[in-house]
Amino acid sequence: MASGLTIPIGAAIAEPAPAAQAPAAQAVVADPPPGLVAAMQRDLGLSAEQAKTRLANEQRAGRTESSLRGRLGDRFGGAWLTGADAKLVVATTDSSSASAIAAEGAQAKVVKHPYAALVDAKNALDRVGSSAPKTAPVWYVDVQSNSVVVLSSEPAAAEKFVAASGADRSLIRVERSDEQPQTFYDLRGGDAYYIGSGSRCSIGFPVTRGTTQGFVTAGHCGSTGASTSGSNRVAQGSFQGSSFPGNDYAWVAANSNWTAQPWVNQNGGNLTVRGSNVALVGASICRSGSTTGWHCGTVQQHNTSVTYSQGTVYEVTRTSVCAEPGDSGGSFISGDQAQGVTSGGSGNCSSGGTTYYQPVNEILSVYGLTLKTTGNGPSPTPTPTQTNNPGGTWQTYTAYSAGATVTYGGATYRCLQAHTSLPGWEPPNVPALWQRL
C-alpha cells in the first residue's frame, strides 16, 4: 500500500522462531484440476512443482487452522499463509500456546489482540458504513498486522468515521491510499436483460462454467452469438448456446464486469438459491420476471409438451403461475431450490394464467454449467438448535469432504458439499451441507 500517514497499534509482543515445517507439508498434489497449475504458473510465478506443493499445503493448512482455531478459542489471533509454498502462520494472544501451534507444523506468532476483538471492531465500522466518507471506501480485518485497516485518501475524514463508529480505536489503523473501487454488476435471477438493441427477457439463474460467469435463460430469447446488455443497458455478454423449439433453453456468458450471484429477485430483495432438487407435483412454486415481478402457484404436471407458433417444446413443466411478455427466461424456484426458466403460457397476471418452464437441471447438464448457489455453506445460525447432549460423531472445527457420513442426535447424515464445521452448523440446521439418511 502507499506510504503516508499510518496510525499504529500495539505491535506483536513476541514472535517465536519459526517452527520446523513437518515433513508432510512438502507433499505434492498429484492430480490438480485441469488448467489450475498453468494458471498458478502464469499468475503466481511458480513452477509446476511449486504449484502442486502449494496446493497440497493449502489443503492441509485449512484443516490445521480449523483445528487450532477451535482449540485456541478466545486466544486465537488469526491465521494466514506465507511464502511460495504456503506455510501456515497461526497467531495467538497466549505465548504458552506457541508450542502447541508448532507441534501442528505451523509457525506461531504471539499478538496483542484476539481475532474476535478485531471482528467486533470491524462490525462497529460496518454498522455505520453508510456514513463512511467517499474518501474511505475500504476497511477490513488484517490478521497479519493484528488490526482493522481503513484505507483513505483523506485520513482526517477517516478518523471522524472511526470515532463515530464507537469501535475500539486501539484496534484500528488508518492507511493513506488512493484506492477507489468501482462497482461491477450482479447477475440475479428474474432481472431484465436486453438482446441486441431490441427485445427484453429475464435472467433465469446465474451459473458458472469453469471461470466463466453467466446465466441460463429461455432459448427463444436469443440465438447463439447474440449480444446482451443488462437492465442498466451496460454491455453484458453473449449467447453461447441456444435451442428452440424442441427445447427452450440457452445460456449467456457474461463479461468480467458481471458477477454471478446465488440470488433470485424477490420483489427487490434477494432470495438465496441453495440447490436444484426437483419439486413434486402439487408443490408450491414461484416465478420471478422483469415484467410482472414475483408470482407464485403450484406445480401441475412435469414432462409436458407445449406447442407455440414457432413449434413444439417437450418435457417442460406446467404450473398455475401467471406470466407476461418479458418474463420469458425468468426464474422458477420452489423454496430455495431452482426449478427452471420461464418458457411461455397463456393468460396474464391480471386474470390469471398457466405458465410452462424448462427444467434447469437439463440445461446445466447439456451445457456443462454449475448452478450458482451459496457454495461455501450458510452462515452459522444465530441461535443453534442443538438438542441436549445430542451425541454422535459430528464435531465442530472439522474439515468434512462431500460424501462423508456422521451421526448426530441419533441420526446419520451425509455431507453434500465440502466445508469446515463451525458452531451453529450442526447437521439438522444446515440442509445445504448435510442430508439426513
Could you give the topology of this structure?
Blueprint (H helix, E strand, L loop, with lengths): L35 H9 L3 H25 L3 E7 L4 E6 L5 H6 L3 E4 L4 H13 L10 E5 L4 E6 L2 H11 L6 E5 L8 E5 L2 E4 L4 E3 L2 E5 L2 E6 L9 E4 L4 E9 L5 E6 L3 E9 L2 E4 L11 E6 L3 E16 L2 E9 L11 E4 L2 E12 L3 E8 H8 L2 E2 L27 E2 L4 E4 L2 E5 L3 E2 L13 E3 L1
Parallel strand pairs: 2-3, 5-6, 7-15
Antiparallel strand pairs: 1-2, 4-5, 8-9, 8-12, 10-11, 10-23, 11-14, 12-13, 13-14, 15-16, 17-18, 17-20, 18-19, 19-22, 20-21, 21-22, 24-27, 25-26, 26-28
Account of the protein in words:
- This protein has helices at residues 36-44, 48-72, 98-103, 115-127, 155-165, 360-367, and strands at residues 76-82, 87-92, 107-110, 138-142, 147-152, 172-176, 185-189, 192-195, 200-202, 205-209, 212-217, 227-230, 235-243, 249-254, 258-266, 269-272, 284-289, 293-308, 311-319, 331-334, 337-348, 352-359, 370-371, 399-400, 405-408, 411-415, 419-420, 434-436.
- A hairpin with a 2-residue loop joins strand 20 (331-334) and strand 21 (337-348).
- The chain has an eight-stranded antiparallel beta sheet with strand order 9-8-12-13-14-11-10-23, covered by helices on one side. It has a six-stranded antiparallel barrel with strand order 17-18-19-22-21-20. Strands 1-2-3 form a three-stranded mixed beta sheet.
- The protein is globular and about 75 Å long.
- Mean pLDDT is 81; it is low at 1-29 and 376-388.
- It is built from six helices and 28 strands.
- It is of the alpha+beta class and 437 residues long.
- It is 16% helix and 37% strand.
